[in-house]
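The instructor's notes for this session suggest beginning with a concrete chain rather than abstract definitions. Hand out the sequence below and ask the class to guess, before any prediction is shown, which regions might be ordered.
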Amino acid sequence: MAKKADANTDQAKETEVVLEGINREFEEKDTLKKAKEQNLSYVNIGKTPINPDYLKLIPYKTAKEAKAITFYKIGDKLRVAVVNPEDPKTKKVLEDLRKQDFKLNINLASQSGVLEVTKRYADLQVYREKQIVDKVKAGSIKTYEKEIAELKQLEQKVKEVTAEEAINLINIGAMKTKASDVHYEPTDSEAIVRFRIDGVLHNVFNVKKKVYDNILSQIKYQTKMKLNISDVPQDGRYNFNFNERKIDVRVSIIPTEKSESIVCRFLDSGKEFTSFEELGFEGEYLAKTKGLTKISHGMILVTGPTGSGKTTTLYSLLQGFNTPDKKIITLENPIEYHMEGIVQSQINEKDDYDFSSGLRAILRQDPDIVMIGEIRDQETAEAAAQAALTGHVVLSTLHTNSAIESIPRLINMGMEPFVVAPALDTLIAQRLVRRVCKECGTLEPITDRERKEFEEAFKDLQETNPKLVPKIPEQVYHAKGCGKCSQTGYTGRLVIAEIVSVDDEMKELILQNASVGKILELARKKGFISMKENGFMKAAEGHTTIEEVHRVIRVSEE
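After discussion, reveal the predicted structure:
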């Protein structure tokens, strides 16, 4: 008897579901008919995928009472589903949206559909007031390992918050872990979110494709990119607040086979540029970099690949030059950091305001010191050299593997040796190595293999200038990993560099079109230390590890 009763109950439930479906179908058909009569669009809102960010445009309580749903948005165009456009509460909602400069497309929807949507999304609380965090107390910043553990929870959490809130949480997490970039990389069914910390990428968490699509749309919206364009690269910027500092975010989006890939670069406008000692310059090289801020004219070139700290070194130099009696003008693309007391100008190649034309323009502003973001071509190089020869200090960057290679690079651009020689003052090439974590890094007796590596690294220096060769240590640091460094074994970075001062003897060799070997031979006599040698010196002093020096030098040579 019990089994028969259960069967009857199940059959009754099935019948109820079928009848409910039939009734709903009739309701949707009736709504479609009304929409045609009222010359309105129709939407089956219950079956329409909705980005939760669009729903927040109407507060939950208001949306429920007015039976109105904002379900699609492109720019200022907004589609709204309503049950009765003549309802006074609905009219009030529509009028409020128009006051926000939205161009409305009214869509008639069934009452059951609207109620279904409001109920479904109420559970996710997307209608609640958004919780945007923009202040983080220094004391609340936890270890990197714990931060990553928390960020991994976003894989679940972003399903329950708006895309705007998810982006904000990711941004704050990136700032707290001192990440320089956030990478969003789409695959077939999801997207991988990675942070670049101390120059190395770390996987943080994955998000489902639907969630990623919402984040992608929100980032495009915040950066004022074209939302309906997905097959060409786009660039943009937005900013957010972190501990009362404005953080600029430079965004690059490119099309991929699966979707679009995003890279966000963080630029801290409140960043304080550290001293040359803190950057990692030591000994003779420290004295040389400090002395550069006292020169009255000439070109200072900082070379290296992307991510080698060139910009930080340039800004640290500018900070040293920045006194009330000097006029400093920069020409950048883009302006990465803002400095008081300095005139900063951003190039715009679309309007023919490039480095070359910009340099000619800013020289009419009577500067003492000029900083050009990058020397890319002969025209810019010659304009920079001319400025250096006419009593200006010119700072810029160049893409070469070593300091001395800057000389043939300029000549290969088309500059004459008799222009290059008198214009140049100092050449700096650099890379960044990670500092070994002092909480977990362990000092261990040096092995025979490691001793041989030190001997090999200092072989040339031993032959040319043995006084500069450091004592090979009996113990060297090895990276281990702990909570403070998230098991990486490293915290922070420092410069390894090589510096060439272009004195009269060097200028004479350049005028003679001497080979790189000849110039290097002269530099060696004057105390030149190569980047690799400088890196092994840092390892000998316990600042970094042999493995880290190999990683950076190997990457730079590939």
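Then share the key points. The first strand starts at residue 41 and ends at 42. Residues 24 and 112 are 8 Å apart (CA to CA).
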